[in-house]
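User: Before I run my own analysis I want an independent prediction to cross-check against. Here's the chain; please return only the structure tokens and, at the end, one sentence I can use as a sanity check.
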Amino acid sequence: MRRDTIFYKLFKQFPGLLFELVDEPPLEADNYQFESVEVKETAFRIDGVFLPPANAASQVVFFAEVQFQKDEDLYFRFFSEVSLFLHRHPIRYHDWMGVIIFGSRNLEPSNLRIHRSLLAGDQVQRIYLDELGDVQQQPLGLGLMLLTIKEGTEAIETARFLLEQAQEQSEIAIIDLIATIIVYKFSNLSREEIINMLGLDVEEPRALREAKEEGRKQEGTSLVIRLLNRRLGGIPEQYLSQVQQLSLSQIEALGEELLDFSTVADLETWLQSNLG
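Assistant: Structure tokens:
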């Protein structure tokens, strides 16, 4: 199962989720920005960097690492990544915190002595998902994390419980993530089998697909308008409104065709042809 992908989506969608695991979250926790950062000129990529807002009184950067397999070099790599990142940003950040999330305690590296001063301090917090307790006693976001370590029948029961909670709270994004986790866990099953297994309404997946399609359409339309403005030096209002009314497939087609445009007349011709 691609847990790194799942946790990237989790933190990208809900960056405040990390701070539900932290003993003393920053005052500006809701405004932190999540990024996956590559440290150039090395082979390092930090799983998650949570950047404070520029106007935060205390510039504390949080580093997250998610580990679901045994890796004896984990701490060597993690502390090297942190040091390199801070070396590249020596002025902005006043302090740092590390949150390392293990599926279970037995996945932690066995040689802790060499890192004892850092691990014993207050800058690094280690989380063991299987020790967080009953899913039903956790916030919905942490419940998603716990779902990643469930298997078989327990995974299905947990997913059904979380779906019920997400539906009650109208959390469409969380419903989508629950379905994604189950798809990864049961890759041998068809979409219809998974829908039936989770007890989802037949209409609901269609609504989710439509919501995602609308989101892609909005992103695609914004990108195409930017490219048209750059290529043509501006778009008359009448053509701008027509572009905004295009379907997703038409936006994708226009995105390919506009590379050959040189004047607004080319855009006008394309719109007349494709809008009938």
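Sanity check: Residues 134-200 form one domain.
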